[in-house]
Specification:
The longest helix is centred in the last third of the chain and has 12 residues, at about 90-105. This protein has a 6-stranded antiparallel β-sheet. It has helices spanning about 1-5, 30-35, 60-65, 90-105, and strands spanning about 15-20, 25-30, 45, 50-55, 70-75, 80. The protein has about 100 residues and is α+β, with helices and mostly antiparallel strands. The protein contains 4 helices and 6 strands.
Length: about 100
């Protein structure tokens, strides 16, 4: 499901998924990119998803709530935010390259 939503991201959506074990929200791909435009959060790379991932605390989610329109909230496990203006993919490739360089072991 996560990968499908990110592949179909229209340039305005931020999807967040709650990970019970980590106690963090995760944003992948374009959602991760858009989230980092609003909050300063750690970026890594998910080998399972084959895309970048941003780790978000509840305080980050609150900041995203202030900056974006909330479309959907399923209990504590999923948020769908909408950027107020379309950003698109411009800058994503550069951001991804920098994120990958920072996460190399």
């Amino acid at each position: 499901m996560f990968k499908q939503l990110e592949t179909a991201n229209d340039g305005q959506s931020v999807h967040l998924y709650y990970d019970d074990m980590a106690g963090l929200y995760l944003a992948f791909g374009l959602s991760a990119y858009y989230a980092t435009m609003v909050v300063n959060a750690p970026v890594s790379f998910s080998e399972a998803m084959e895309m970048p991932v941003v780790l978000l605390r509840r305080s980050h989610v609150n900041d995203l709530r202030q900056a974006m329109t909330k479309l959907e909230h399923t209990q504590q496990s999923y948020y769908h935010f909408r950027l107020r203006t379309k950003v698109g993919r411009e800058g994503y490739d550069k951001w991804l390259k920098v994120a990958l360089e920072k996460t190399e072991l």
